[in-house]
Amino acid sequence: MSVVKLVLAYDGTDFHGWARQPGQRTIEGELVRVLETVLREPPTLSVAGRTDAGVHARGQEVSFAAEIEPSRIQRVVNGALAPEVVVVWASHAPDGFDARFSATAREYRYRIDAGPIPDPFTARYIWHRPGELRVSAMRAAARALVGEQDFASFGRAPNEGGDTVRRLEKLTVFRRGDRLEIVARANAFIQQMVRSLVGTLVDVGDERIDPRDVPAILQARDRARAGRVAPPHGLTLERAVYAPGGRPAMYRAGSPGPARG
Amino acid sequence: MSVVKLVLAYDGTDFHGWARQPGQRTIEGELVRVLETVLREPPTLSVAGRTDAGVHARGQEVSFAAEIEPSRIQRVVNGALAPEVVVVWASHAPDGFDARFSATAREYRYRIDAGPIPDPFTARYIWHRPGELRVSAMRAAARALVGEQDFASFGRAPNEGGDTVRRLEKLTVFRRGDRLEIVARANAFIQQMVRSLVGTLVDVGDERIDPRDVPAILQARDRARAGRVAPPHGLTLERAVYAPGGRPAMYRAGSPGPARG
Predict the structure, then answer these.
(1) What CATH number is given to the structural domain containing B59?
(2) How far apart, in whole angstroms, are the C-alpha atoms of residue A2 and residue A65?
(3) Cβ contact B134:B210 at 8 Å
């Protein structure tokens, strides 16, 4: 069997997240339902980022084993699910490629509109949170969060009692006018980690949290110490990062498990 | 009674157009329902552009008589209807101002995505119509349509047997990459006129209609002669134009007030 790789974009608004769940409309569930009609049996999908309910994607990556022309998969899936879920790219991948385990990092972008008036045309994808934010304080807090750290204060391990150490490679705050964007890249994320990091940065920007307290919040390993969890609709999985050649990355002992939004 | 003027933006996707209709969810219907709670009686709204089902607005203008602080109207309406319908601006207008009859022109913008792959994040507001369009031919056709003309081939008069002569001041095709935008400005439009003009330009761009046939299509006064009617979701009412004297002096004065209640 060959490995087929899809790059997906989706509007997560009306989905209960990526992962299949009985009785819920999920992206994985819809995708498997359509793929099943072409492949004759339900494929086992490997995915770069298991996005939560309401979270979007522009560069989600999925892989599965199948003997089929990738362009046919793209045509069938887009015919059934576009424009809500779109296969942006479909190709064969090298043997051993796995969208989850071969990824060395995931990059998310959180969009905030701090202007006074909501915008009907961006409201599905941007968190409208009116009022000035102190960007320099947010950047100071972000710098204290980058690195290999225990993020137990900022989310849950995918499995009860699992490891909460992740390597946050980048946490950058961009501003243009009333629009803020926060880019977060890590080897993997624990559950709700991006939204909890963003909510904490916004609390810093609001002067509810002093940026100098961020190291203590990390050390506390206590979710009650971090800031709010930002709403899901501002968050988009932008891309997964793979080593050149797409070879599986070496993970340290104790796999971090699936990435989360 | 003073005249209150609102500038509205809305996502028309889930509305049956502007105009109130029994048993239908319309923008006017929702707005009147909310205004009634503040004004104690339903206001009579005058509107610059009666948008069709599925058509959006960024700069729709509405006026009505009321003794109330405009900023309070903005707060209440946005509290009830944002982000789907948003009061972008609220102010008093001079005596005699009427959003419909004082307007000298309306400007619409139609957005087309001619790229191969649909985009989940623009699909509500942009018509995805994959494949190259001959923009120079579209521009030639557009030039033949501008002017004071009888547009009976491109729509219906609002009233049975009514006048179909309108002054089309501007019909411009912009392109950037796969994205096309068509701006149409007229003193007023007959029903479905913008979408019929756009559909005809797209048929010209597709080589289904020769741009040299456009004068004959106009002269025919026959809807069967024009091109397709483009779908509503690509269309946005961008603004209404008022004569400099008709523009309320205090339009830019004062504070727009808070966005939400």
Answers:
(1) 3.30.70.580
(2) 6
(3) no
